[in-house]
Design brief:
The complex is a heterodimer of chains A (441) and B (397). Chain A contains 18 helices and twelve strands. With 441 residues, chain A is α/β, with parallel strands linked by helices. In chain A, the strands form three sheets. Chain A has a six-stranded parallel sheet with strand order 3-2-1-4-5-6, with helices on both faces. In chain A, a hairpin with a 7-residue loop joins strand 10 and strand 11. Chain B has two domains: 250 residues, Crotonobetainyl-coa:carnitine coa-transferase, domain 1 (Rossmann fold, 3-Layer(aba) Sandwich), CATH 3.40.50.10540; 90 residues, 2-Layer Sandwich (formyl-coa transferase, domain 3). Chain B is built from 16 helices and 14 strands. Chain B is elongated. The chains are: A alpha/beta (441), B alpha/beta (397). Strand 12 of chain A pairs antiparallel with strand 6 of chain B.
Chain lengths: 441, 397
């Protein structure tokens, strides 16, 4: 295992400060990816490849840099997602750094013929191509699977989109919340009889990205066995529907509609009949603890843990079924017990009695205080020439084989043009200067 | 996407042999994601059946080990074998002898109860990829803590971003096992990394997937908002948690449903498209005035704009808003229920849903495969293995 056994507040620090491309380490070392991805889904999907040793060459357009470069997540300056600074330094964006660590960065203006020629030369020395533009954009440039196969016969071409590359809605505009709404995932979150509470994040940006990473790895693994490449079509909406889970079968098998006043059930769990099962207020501003009790044995331990107050002896709480039936009352009592306590104190007390409980942790808790994440070294830091030291979300599994190879923070705009165009593609310096002057790179 | 002629060949995971011991949806979904693509996934269950068979809802509301819809959902295209664990049993050993991958999703305490020791399994089967999914990881101060989907979402931080504008209401769990689903996707990724590495080294490895870590790296903007400006995002109804409140993005429609629409004021094109659309219904009113072409003016009058949009959506039905808004280039969507998804014209046209034949002879509609490969055929889904017909089961082994 690669556990770091760190203490809260300390973070593994990777990278030597040397930014020149170097030999990579890991299961994907030696694999080169021509990465046309941008925004969230594509960037997170190819980040996984870069973490594990692939040479991921991110292609950007200097005149339309990747959106996360422009989104205002800056050190020392709080702005909402939509409050962009029109004159922002594209090398300062924290979200881009988060999404594009370990990748190389080049600039190509694909709206020029010479730019497209250059991109094709880059594809020709790669073996994986990735993109997540709106359907039709790659085609407009002549970049099709057939064309890429002419350049690289066993190419793997991964296409990541909201709705996929066929069907009547393939051109619909999407980002995380759109996918969540269309796939049913927003509907299933909320209190009964109210508007959905849905998601406070682009859950489907992450999940679609993870599925795209997995798809690429499946294809890479299979190509090593069979020599065959493939095109990959992952529609985020379809991934989203598969994540709805058993509720779908309740509709298709039992004809039990989800369009009913008692669905969704908020934090209560209908299958199985868990009770108490909820999120309870604690001391402090907006602090909460989640508690889940599934059976009589767990209930007995809960009663003991909280000191057997009189209400726990109420006959309405004598069995799991009866507790489930009287949840309003049960929740009121339990909230009374948690209300003046610290959420982590409740969590540790209940967990020490074998009860499922968790403080509702915010990012500060996760980063600065969570001893488990610190032990595992889940968050780590690397330096960045403009931003300075910055933190990252690491890979959430330990591998006894090769772990991630974190070597460099995200590329500055066009940082690796000389290496990629010069060393990899053999474009001499005079021509590179000319291409830059003409706005091609 | 066109399918290559070669797609009539073998599925992408053909030849991959997987043993699954899973007592939660994380491991079961990982196994399903392999079985759907042609891997042979053998589920090892105790004689009385996996505990996941006891989780509802149940077919026709009748509880039983072969009627759990949750079990059906997560276990399509697998075969099963019942065995007395502990883990050193001959049955399990012989299965592992032939296997490429072991998926193990039980808690640390259950690993001990079942007598399963990862290091000794790895030592006996050096080319095996052992993918262990646990609530908090194999070691560390919380490794013995117990979890559930709700508890994992809470401790991992994702729950903190989800709920209502009204903060007297607690954070609300997005339903249907999402913490387990996040963990399954990282298990899926990890085991293919390990298989690729094995092709180079000949060696398997032990993968330690922590559900807690998986959730903790997945709340999207919440962590970067802490990494950079050290801001804590606050939950808002059905839209991104942000450092400070933003306008609602959920709108009621004339037919009693909801649409999601977040207007980005700084972008001139969607604004123009929206006003043109409202104008076709004769309700653009003052929004068509020239001063609204200035971003600053739009920002200053956002509450008014928001009210006008609310009224505009209330005079139309949700499906019309979805399709016409999208046709006008606006990122907008109807909030579909699971019932709606099943008849969604796009998904139906893409042939996304599968008819799965059940042991009863009836069929049921299941969602299809989430990833499409042009070069590899889709494997038709088979129903989850039944516990009550051991003959059929051993035959399939």
């Amino acid at each position: 295992m690669t556990a770091t056994r760190g203490e809260p507040g300390s973070f593994p620090f990777y990278g030597t400060g040397e930014r020149a491309p170097r030999q990579r380490r890991g299961p994907l070392a030696g694999l080169r990816v021509a990465d046309f991805c941008w925004m969230g889904v594509g960037s997170v999907a190819t980040r996984l490849l870069a973490d594990f040793g692939a040479e991921v060459i991110k292609i950007e357009d200097r005149t339309r840099v990747d959106m996360p470069r422009r989104l205002p997540l800056y050190k020392g300056e709080v702005r909402n997602y939509g409050q962009q600074d029109a004159n922002a330094d594209p090398n300062r964006g924290g979200l881009f750094n988060n999404y594009s660590r370990n990748k190389l960065g080049v600039t190509i203006n694909l709206r020029t013929e010479r730019g497209r020629e250059l991109a094709e030369r880059l594809v020709a020395v790669s073996s994986v191509v990735t993109e997540n533009f709106a359907p039709g954009v790659m085609e407009k440039w002549g970049f099709t699977y057939d064309r890429f196969r002419e350049l690289v016969p066993d190419v793997i071409y991964a296409r990541m989109s909201g709705y996929g590359h066929s069907g009547p809605h393939q051109h619909y505009r999407s980002y995380g919340p759109i996918v969540q709404a269309a796939s049913g995932l927003s509907y299933v979150a909320g209190l009964p009889g109210r508007e959905p509470s849905g998601w406070g994040l682009s859950y489907m940006d992450n999940m679609a990205a993870y599925y795209n990473s997995a798809a690429l790895l499946m294809a890479i693994w299979n190509r090593r066995r069979t020599g065959a490449g493939t095109e990959i079509d992952v529609a985020a909406v379809e991934v989203g529907v598969t994540l709805l889970g058993p509720i779908l079968l309740d509709v298709t098998v039992n004809s039990h509609t989800s369009q009913r006043p008692d669905y969704p059930t908020g934090n209560r769990l209908e299958h199985p009949h868990a009770a108490p099962h909820g999120v309870y207020r604690c001391a402090g501003e907006d602090r909460w603890v989640a508690v889940a009790v599934f059976d009589d044995a767990e209930w007995s331990r809960l009663v003991e843990a909280i000191g057997s107050p009189d209400w726990t002896g109420d006959e309405r709480f004598a069995t799991q079924e009866s507790r489930f039936k009287h949840q309003d009352l049960l929740d009121a009592y339990l909230s009374g017990w948690t209300a003046d306590q610290d959420p982590h104190t409740v969590m540790h007390l209940l967990q020490s009695h074998g009860i499922r409980a968790g403080a509702v942790q915010n990012p500060q808790d996760l980063n600065e205080f969570d001893p488990q994440l610190a032990w595992r070294g889940t968050f780590f830091e690397m330096d960045h020439p403009v931003i300075g030291p910055a933190r990252f979300e690491g890979f959430p599994a330990s591998m006894s084989g090769e772990g991630p190879d974190h070597w460099r923070s995200a590329p500055l705009v066009g940082e690796d043009n000389d290496y990629v165009f010069g060393e990899l593609l053999g474009v001499d310096e005079a021509e590179r200067v000319e291409l830059a002057e003409q706005g091609v790179i | 996407m066109a399918t290559d002629a070669s797609a009539v060949g073998a599925p992408i995971c053909q030849g991959l042999s997987v043993v699954e011991i899973a007592e939660d949806p994380a491991g079961e979904l990982t196994g399903k994601l392999l079985a759907q693509y042609g891997a042979v996934v053998t589920k090892v269950e105790p004689r009385e059946g996996s505990p996941t068979r006891r989780v509802g809802p149940f077919a026709d509301g009748v509880a039983g080990p072969d009627s759990s819809l949750a079990f059906w959902y997560y276990n399509t295209s697998k075969r099963s074998f019942t065995a007395e664990l502990p883990g050193e049993s001959e049955v399990l050993e012989s299965l592992l002898e032939e296997a490429d991958v072991l998926i193990l999703s039980v808690s640390r305490a259950r690993q001990d109860e079942l007598g399963i020791d990862l290091a000794s399994i790895a030592a006996r089967h050096p080319s095996l990829v052992v993918c262990a999914i646990t609530p908090f990881g194999q070691d560390g101060p919380w490794s013995r803590y117990a979890t559930s989907d709700l508890v994992s979402l809470a401790a991992g931080g994702l729950l903190n971003s989800c709920g209502y504008d009204d903060h007297t209401i607690p954070p609300i769990r997005p339903a249907e096992n999402q913490a387990y689903h996040v963990a399954a996707s990282f298990a899926h990724i990890s085991l293919f990394l390990a298989l690729i590495e094995r092709d180079q080294t000949g060696r398997g490895q032990v993968i330690d997937v922590s559900i807690h870590d998986c959730v903790a790296v997945s709340p999207e903007l919440a962590n970067p908002y802490w990494f950079y400006p050290k801001a804590l995002v606050k939950r808002q109804t059905c839209r991104h948690a942000q450092p400070t409140p933003t306008q609602p993005a959920l709108f009621s429609t004339g037919d009693g449903r909801y649409v999601y629409f977040a207007l980005i004021l700084s972008d001139p094109k969607p604004w123009q498209n929206l006003v043109e659309w409202m104008d076709t219904h004769g309700v653009a009113a003052d929004l068509a005035d020239p001063q609204y072409s200035q971003v600053a003016y739009r920002q200053a009058n956002f509450p008014h704009i928001q009210q006008m949009i609310e009224a505009f959506f209330l005079i139309q039905d949700a499906q019309t808003i979805y399709h016409e808004g999208q046709a006008r280039g606006l990122p907008i969507a109807v909030v579909n229920s699971p019932d709606d998804v099943l008849v969604d014209e796009h998904l139906v046209a893409r042939g996304f849903f599968d008819e799965v034949e059940l042991p009863s002879g009836k069929t049921a509609v299941f969602p299809g495969a989430p990833i499409r490969f042009s070069a590899y055929p889709v494997v038709p889904q088979a129903s989850a293995p039944s516990l009550s017909s051991p003959a059929a089961r051993s035959e399939s082994l």
